[in-house]
Amino acid sequence: MVTGAYKPRNPKATPLYQCVNAHFAEFEASYRARYQEQYGFYRPAIGRVVEKYLTCGDLTKGFARVRCDTCRHEFLLAFSCKGRYFCPSCHQKRVLQFGNWVADEVLAPVPHRQYVFTVPKMLRVYFRKDRRLLGKLSQCAADALKTLFRGACKDPKAVPGTIMVIQTYGDLVNFHPHLHALVTDGIFTPTGWFVGFPKIDLYALEHLFRHRVLGLLLRERRIDGAVIRKLLGWRHSGFSLHNAVWIGAADSDGRRAVAEYILRSPFSMEKLRYQAKTGTIIQQSKMHPVLKRNFEVFSACDWLAALTAHIPNAGEHLVRYYGWYSNVSRGKRRRAQGGEQHPSRNAPKSRALPRSARGRASSSRSTKWIRSCVPAAQVPCASSPSSSNQQ
């Protein structure tokens, strides 16, 4: 059964495409003079991602011919650019796949919390001009969580399960590096038992995080002792921590929703307006506490400078797995237990599906979503399709 009506994607009609197509060449030509001081040197990844985006979804640039092996019906599917944090369509596909992967393959059937770590405004410039520091910022938060959790459990070898997503953007695509972490609401012992925590000392966790971030920037020679003393002398240091979002052990939809949220795009196309006559972008947002309004007006080039600052470099990882959820830990458990997860205290075995069953459920959801995007006339049966590429 088809779950939705198909509307062919027309990227050239979107405000993003129109803005990029009309102004990206001007933005590139003026980058050194207008934006290099604020955003750092022009990164090759920006040009590569934008160039591919301009051909995304265009049948004249190549397509796959998808054919049903049973009824022989076929249709054309344009190639996509797969651009992260820039192409809305491709990034949304990644978000949905990530949500299914995390909910079905990574998270243990135990309670979780979302933690949000932020840093002071005066320190954000160092992460904007050196993206290498973003990964180290993530490690600071993971180390702080592990230290606090181990102290609460009094087991030096126990670990929480943490998925850390690095976000670099605020509501108005301003550069705002912060971390979203999906963390077990407790800790796993070396034998695999889960010990839940009634409450976490957020003040102590913020202190640990602040100490590690300042130590990182000091070692990297971005700040000195005088800056540290200044920050520590403020009544509010600018570091903040939030963990009010809790997800129950059996709430698979909640896990998926949070996973999708923390990987969301820097902007929403529905909140974007491009004014071709004036060469401006109007972006809507929540009510801004400083601007006292829920929108901002940018020149096209200024907006492109802000948006492209969030494009990751090739091979740059903005999602990281630590502790019980690290790649090494998951691999060891699969090899030792034949693909099954170790049962956790306070989580009945029946809540954990075998890997094969979880894979089938995830595949079913993905197939349902993909088929909802295909014309009713083009899905005459439920057989698996085959494809061939043409350019």
Task: List the main descriptive attributes of the protein structure presented here.
5-stranded antiparallel β-sheet; 391 residues; alpha+beta; 3-stranded antiparallel β-sheet; 12 helices
Number of DSSP E strands: 13
Structural class: alpha+beta
Distance N terminus to C terminus?
32 Å
Low-confidence stretches: 341-358, 370-380
Residue share in helix: 40-55%
Instruction: Tell me the number of helical segments per DSSP (H or I, 4 or more residues long).
Output: 12
Please outline what is shown here.
The protein has 391 residues and is α+β, with helices and mostly antiparallel strands.
Structure description:
This protein has 391 residues and is of the alpha+beta class. It has a domain at 91-266 and 313-352. 41% of the residues lie in helices and 19% in strands. The protein contains 12 helices and 13 strands. The strands form 4 sheets. A 5-stranded antiparallel beta sheet has the order 8-3-5-4-12, with helices on both faces. It has a 3-stranded antiparallel beta sheet with strand order 2-1-13, with no helix packed on it. A hairpin with a 5-residue loop joins β1 and β2. α1 crosses α10. The protein is globular. The relative contact order is 0.19.
